[in-house]
Amino acid sequence: MSASLPIDPQRRQQVAQALLAVLPERCVLSDPEDTRPYECDGLAAYRQLPMIVTLPDDEEQVLAILNVCRELNVPIVPRGAGTGLSGGALPMADGVVLSTARMNRIVRMEPYARLAVVQPGVRNLAISDAAAPHGLYYAPDPSSQIACTIAGNVAENSGGVHCLKYGLTVHNVLRVRVATIDGDIIELGGEALDAPGLDLLAVFIGSEGMLGIVTEVTVRLIPKPATARVIMASFDNVVTGGNAVASVIAAGIIPAGLEMMDQTSSRMVEPFVRAGYDTDAAAILLCEADGTQLEVDEEIERMTAVLQAAGAGAIAVSQSEAERLRFWSGRKNAFPAAGRISPDYYCMDGTIPRKNLAQVLTGIAQMEATYGLRCANVFHAGDGNLHPLILFDANQPGEFDRAEAFGADILALCVEVGGTITGEHGVGKEKINSMCIQFTRAELDAFFAVKRAFDAQHLLNPDKAIPTLNRCAEFGKMRVSGGVLPFAGLPRF
Ligand SMILES: Cc1cc2nc3c(=O)[nH]c(=O)nc-3n(C[C@H](O)[C@H](O)[C@H](O)COP(=O)(O)OP(=O)(O)OC[C@H]3O[C@@H](n4cnc5c(N)ncnc54)[C@H](O)[C@@H]3O)c2cc1C
């Protein structure tokens, strides 16, 4: 758990005065009572009271905030709804939080062009709700979609259950409008399939608030499938379940969703949601088919055959839309359900090649014994994107430290089998040390060069996502290629 650093009252007054000279009073919070709700994001183990919180109403005010902060050399932490799970929106004691949550208008809906132009604070689900009368929706569907904002999704390159078939945020955003730290507006991408110039849109998506402030987003909308059905398949061990995932994809099927829950997860969810899960199974898979009635019937038949051949026991197929939603409701509510069986949980996020699912799940089970902590696995199996929920009690001395070490070991295992330390939750503050395991010095240098190109003063979310080489050296981990001495002449940012 991190302790909040003290805030310099004189500096706070100086920065607040400068901000109040360019913004209405309601847009600037500096009283600790008002700034307290911003002290953490979804990674609540890390907390820091911000020096000041700003809540701009429009792009002009965003630029005004950036100008003040640049002139006074104040770090800026962008924020959406604060649902991030890696501490990306964790404030700084000498920094300003810039929340775009109030910029929450749908600017334009263009059903014929199948796109929507929205302000950064629009909630993910609100886009699909607004597109629904046109028979369209926005495909990436993080489980937090009722609350999280599109700017947060852009910054984290968020995913969700349907991203296996329809792609992540990066595949569904056409254009972003960005306020730069220099006080300019730039537009990355365009409304056509391709845009001229360097593909900076792809660089920006997933950049975790380190390159600029998102002030507008153009998203792709797609037609709502005519129908969808989901299979719930039971397995008597997680290894067979993990292998079944690889079999489905190897059979040339791309399901609309392919999710796995182990027994700890289904047992924690079932009394909470009554989704109808087989709680005797060691693991269950949820496999969705969508499209026309014919396509769905055919795919359900093919998936059933593959799952049976892969060792599934019971197989249930949703018989109505209500039942399909019920099957998914358990999966979507798995994180909150963890609160029923454990005072605290720590949600990890790593990605591995699908063929290694069984191996990594077995490795995680061994780590449960090593660390003396339980772990529930509920995840986007089709993408190989794991979400181990490590259960612990923060009131028990040492348990949080053990949970953190457990999580770091899982990420190291993901890298070892050829995977990555994040699938969709980002690096933020949480996984900054794990970056030292994943990347070489040259790779980290390249990231810093991009950061410098957008933010030479290093003011935008400066302590997140990319570790300094000094940090990697202190952490004692740096992947070195070609026998190059790792710590010689470590550059500081
Ligand atoms: C219960 C639960 C379930 C979740 N399920 C999923 C899931 O299925 N898939 C998934 O991908 N994630 C999931 N998440 C994580 C989280 O919801 C996503 O990362 C989401 O995109 C964060 O959006 P936000 O608006 O809350 O952003 P915040 O948490 O406020 O910020 C996230 C990052 O975006 C940056 N940022 C915010 N606004 C801006 C802006 N205007 N300009 C530039 N940078 C900005 C911040 O600095 C930070 O780095 C889940 C979280 C919870 C609590």
Describe the structure.
It is globular and about 65 Å long. Mean pLDDT is 92; it is low at 485-493. With 493 residues, the chain is α+β, with helices and mostly antiparallel strands. Among the domains are: 9-99, Uridine Diphospho-n-acetylenolpyruvylglucosamine Reductase, domain 2 (2-Layer Sandwich), CATH 3.30.43.10; 106-223, Uridine Diphospho-n-acetylenolpyruvylglucosamine Reductase, domain 3 (2-Layer Sandwich); 227-335, Alpha-Beta Plaits, CATH 3.30.70.3450. The strands form five sheets. The protein has a seven-stranded antiparallel sheet with strand order 15-12-14-13-18-20-16, with helices on both faces. It has helices spanning 9-20, 32-35, 59-72, 124-131, 150-156, 163-166, 169-172, 200-204, 238-250, 263-273, 293-309, 321-332, 334-341, 357-371, 399-416, 432-438, 441-454, 469-475, and strands at 28-29, 52-54, 76-79, 96-99, 106-110, 115-118, 136-137, 173-179, 185-189, 213-220, 222-223, 227-235, 257-262, 283-291, 315-317, 344-347, 350-351, 374-379, 385-386, 388-392. This is FAD-binding protein.
List the helices and strands and how they pair.
Blueprint: H1 9-20, E1 28-29, H2 32-35, E2 52-54, H3 59-72, E3 76-79, E4 96-99, E5 106-110, E6 115-118, H4 124-131, E7 136-137, H5 150-156, H6 163-166, H7 169-172, E8 173-179, E9 185-189, H8 200-204, E10 213-220, E11 222-223, E12 227-235, H9 238-250, E13 257-262, H10 263-273, E14 283-291, H11 293-309, E15 315-317, H12 321-332, H13 334-341, E16 344-347, E17 350-351, H14 357-371, E18 374-379, E19 385-386, E20 388-392, H15 399-416, H16 432-438, H17 441-454, H18 469-475
Parallel strand pairs: 2-4, 3-4
Antiparallel strand pairs: 1-2, 5-6, 6-10, 7-11, 8-9, 8-10, 12-14, 12-15, 13-14, 13-18, 16-20, 17-19, 18-20
Helix pairs in contact: 9-14, 10-12, 10-13, 14-15, 16-18
